[in-house]
Amino acid sequence: MKIQNPVLHGFNADPSMLRVGDTYYIANSTFEWFPGVRLHESKDLVHWNLLPSPLSTTTLLDMKGNPSSGGIWAPDLTYADGKFWLIYTDVKITEGAFKDMTNYLTTADDIRGPWSDPIAVNGVGFDASLFHDDDGRKYLVQQTWDHREYHHPFDGITLTEFDTTTMQLKPHTARTIYTGTDVKLVEGPHLYKINGFYYLFAAQGGTVYTHEEVVARSKTLDALTFESEPDGPFITNFDTPRLGIQKQGHGALVNTPSGDEWYYASLCGRPWHHENESFTDPRGWCTLGRETSIQKVEWDDEGWPRVVGGHGGQMEVDAPKDAILTDAPANGDQHDEFDTPELNGEWNTLRVPFDDKMGAFGDGKLTLIGQRSLASEFDVSMIARRWQAFNFDAETKVKFDPYTYQQMAGLTNFYNDKNWSFVFITWDEKKGHVIEVAENDRNNYTSYLKDDAIQIPEDTEYVWFKVKARTQSYTYEYSFDGETWHEIPVELDAAHLSDDYILQEYGGFFTGAFVGLAAVDYSGYKQPAEFDYFDYKELD
């Protein structure tokens, strides 16, 4: 049996992997998307099933007003003392000299919850993880942020002892244990104790094509005692541009129940290229965001971990010999009639949970109450799911009765508040109800149909919308009966919804493309839209 990389498709970045008994778990970043922290479980490292997200209430996570790609950065999931420990960071600033943030701790006896009320730990830096030493002591390990313009902002890896009696850190125990190499940008630390050594795994080079993971070790936890792995880095794709997965680095280590085999979960990206582009410059466009790969690890004669197949990793990896074989979960397809008391676990909202202000669902329909535009960081009525394949079709059926051009409802493909497109029903003063396609590209808004907006016949109750994504581009279609479809003559560049495109003008490029349903009424009259179903079919 083989592990096929990536194991988690679409935006599943910054994996924190652990094993409890015979079950493996992965926690991933979710940034501004709610609920917070994405969890999967597996018995074999091959087949992964989605679990309920732990940060599902505003008590645990309140991101109202957070910038795009703020919010939950690099959660850390560990197990000790008979319970799960989750460290997570809520980042409030992404641009400029500061990264105002709070690191929180929550615990649960069961991975499915309930999770305890959060404890604010500190704000020293992001990518915090909790290390449980074998003598019972615990330490917070984290990237350290330096706002001073005459210093490098990534100020090494800090270790601080955690007092389990007060459930707070001991600030005066803080010390820098590692400053990384000349690649800089050292972050994403995870600490392990193996065969008498403390091994520190840390990311460097930024979460782009120069990304890498380094390993350092020490016999103690004293300041600046960690020695970097010779002949490193541990993993990188900087010099393997033609491998199908790129950007590997930030991740976590785990062993099998027998203790004989080791694996490393890493973020990765799968770039594609326009036909007229060089394969290496630009390096490519990752519309699916940063995904999760798993590589096998062996230990050399000097006790250093090495990725099997070389530091670039492999697309196919041998699964554990002692894996408990499980049935493959269903593919990524999703069909939703909105007839259940809870939203499907694939759905996400921006910054806050779905509530009565946003709309309602059940009895075979989803109602979205029009609020602010898709360019807003507040009060957006949208539910969306990840793009998890380069080629897919998604469609919906919507009833909407706008009476001003400030009211819109339909199907959206969305990266962040500055980068999205939208096919929607709206009002035109000359034609009445019409269909328009618009794009917000780096916050420059374009209506593509304008005076040629498609007039909706007066006796039409519902309009069907469809998006066809085909790796490099995507198009929208509409129907007035659900059977006869008409392509709208607007072809959009899928690269505009990629991490790499966003990075060219904005530092928050950490998520990936989503497809979803949205209603806008920035007039403030709260006009509702009714969605009958949503269907997502992968073609890859």
From TrEMBL:
The record marks D127 as: Important for catalytic activity, responsible for pKa modulation of the active site Glu and correct orientation of both the proton donor and substrate. Residues 336-537 form the Beta-xylosidase C-terminal Concanavalin A-like domain. It comes from the Bacteria. One of its GO terms (biological process) is carbohydrate metabolic process. InterPro entries: ConA-like_dom_sf (IPR013320), GH43_C2 (IPR041542), Glyco_hydro_43 (IPR006710), Glyco_hydro_beta-prop_sf (IPR023296), Glycosyl_Hydrlase_43 (IPR051795). The active site is at D14 (proton acceptor), E187 (proton donor). Keywords: Glycosidase, Hydrolase. It holds the Pfam family Glyco_hydro_43. One of its GO terms (molecular function) is hydrolase activity, hydrolyzing O-glycosyl compounds. The keyword Hydrolase applies. Belongs to the glycosyl hydrolase 43 family. This is Beta-xylosidase.
